[in-house]
Write a structure and sequence with these properties.
Strand content: 15-25%
Order of helices and strands: HEEEHEH
Strand order of the largest sheet: 1-2-3-4
Number of strands: 4
Helix content: 40-55%
Distance between the termini: 39 Å
Number of domains: 1
Radius of gyration: 13 Å
Oligomer: single chain
CATH topology: Trna Endonuclease, Chain: A, domain 1
Length: 98
């Protein structure tokens, strides 16, 4: 149980770091909750550009559930699984141009 709490904390830290980065560039970071499998965050930029992000523990090891796979497939290129800050920064630059 303790290991699961540590994993959630490190995932939370990554999520917060990414949200701070996005907000510093004028991108809204909206927490998505209430439906199984839906990505953790929706990032919205100028002109309505969107990026959905499912955060996982840094360094891998996070499991993507069937529900999460459904949503990632459904959302296509506007959704990513992220376990690394640099991956997030690269995708933000690609999608939002900032």
């Amino acid at each position: 149980m303790k290991n699961k709490r540590i994993n959630k904390r490190t995932e939370y830290k990554l999520e917060q770091q990414c949200c701070d980065y996005a907000r510093s560039r004028g991108i809204a970071a909206v927490k998505l909750e209430g439906q199984d499998g839906i990505p953790d965050r929706l990032f919205i930029g100028k002109g309505g550009k969107c990026l959905f992000v499912e955060f996982k523990k840094p360094g891998g090891g996070g499991v993507v559930s069937q529900e999460q796979m459904f949503w990632l497939d459904f959302l296509g290129e506007s959704a990513i699984v992220c376990d690394n800050f640099c991956i997030f920064v690269g995708k933000v630059k690609e999608v939002f141009g900032v």
